[in-house]
Amino acid sequence: MQRGTSLMDSRTEPASSRIVRGEWTADRFRHEALVYGDQNEFLAAAHPFIADALAAAEPVLVALAIERARSLKGSLGGGFGEAHFADMEALGRNPARLIPAWRRFLSDHAPDGRSVRILSEAAWPGRSPAELSECGRYESLLNLAFGEGQAWRLLCCYDVRATPERVIETVRLTHRFVRDGADSTLNDALLDDRAPRPFDGLLPEPARAPEELRFTRESLHELREFVARSASAARMEAERRENLQLAVNELASNSVTHGGGEGRLRVWTEPGALVCEVSDRGHIQEPLVGRVHPATDQTSGRGLWLVNHLCDLVQIRSSPRGSVVRVHMLAAG
């Protein structure tokens, strides 16, 4: 990969982005991956990606962890002007919130359909295995979510030093373009059929024995009290405790309405967090459920939308045999 030491000097003229081989005729959503080995490689690609957009007066959103964003601002000098910056550790703690965030940015800053660029590092160093699994599922949904919409570009960044090889393999399978410095090339390894499907697979069993409660519509009050006691025992902050109670109640209500009239709640603690899991006999089939804001006249999908915005991580697995939704809530925000 190209080295970008000169990019630390904001006076240096940035390289221009260019497509160096292959064809892309859809002229719509461009989903690009940057797998970098050090800070210089990151800046050698991120700098021209952002600088070219600003030169063309395209709206720009940079969603990175704070330290990474600081280094990029340093490389741009005073030239980051109209670029918008967001703390990815807050915005994307739950990766299921990212597609809605990108939709909001497009709606707010490019309602006329003009091109937009977003630079993102959803799988920042330090993510847990559960979070990384959901990052891969988020990546696999992006082409579905935006493939038929307006033209814009998303550059997804991955630090190879801190990212497991299985995650890098998912990156290769889900991005149509790969970036190296100022160059963007068609990805010959793209194989959407091998990418993780949003609800496929099984969740790992908890490390410690969970508490369990079977519920029906008539026992939802008992379920809410059970969650409140568990959250209090985990010393969860009051607002977060209320949010978790609301989220689990939404999931249980979905179970009794769409999942056979009953369900099972399991609760356990992990370091610094409480985990609640609701399972039932229902089958979730809409891949973007919970990631697209429900229409005012829509009767389904509201529960998972709310749950995704209340909890720090949401994991959904579903098949004709039934569904499991596992939510994670940190004790402190």
Structure report:
The chain has helices spanning 39-55, 66-76, 88-91, 98-109, 129-146, 165-174, 220-233, 238-258, 302-310; strands at residues 18-19, 29-36, 60-64, 84-87, 117-120, 152-159, 177-180, 183-186, 211-216, 262-270, 273-280, 313-319, 322-330. It is of the alpha/beta class and 333 residues long. The strands form 2 sheets. An 8-stranded mixed sheet has the order 1-8-7-2-6-5-3-4, with helices on both faces. Strands 9-10-11-13-12 form a 5-stranded antiparallel sheet, sandwiched between helices. It is elongated. Residues 1-26 have low confidence and may be disordered.
Task: Estimate the strand proportion.
Answer: 15-25%
Q: How many extended strands?
A: 13
The poorly predicted ranges are 1-26
- Quickly count the domains: 2
Widest β-sheet, arrangement of strands: 1-8-7-2-6-5-3-4
User: How would you sum up the major sheet?
Assistant: 8 strands, mixed
CATH arch. level architecture of the largest domain: 3-Layer(aba) Sandwich
Q: Which geometry do the CA atoms define? A: elongated
Range of helix content: 25-40%
CATH T-level topology of the largest domain: Rossmann fold
- Count of DSSP-assigned helices: 9
Taken in chain order, the helices and strands follow as EEHEHEHHEHEHEEEHHEEHEE
- Rg is 21 Å
What's the overall average pLDDT, rounded?
Answer: 88
Secondary-structure-derived class: alpha/beta
In the CATH scheme, the class of the largest domain would be Alpha Beta
Distance from first to last alpha carbon:
38 Å
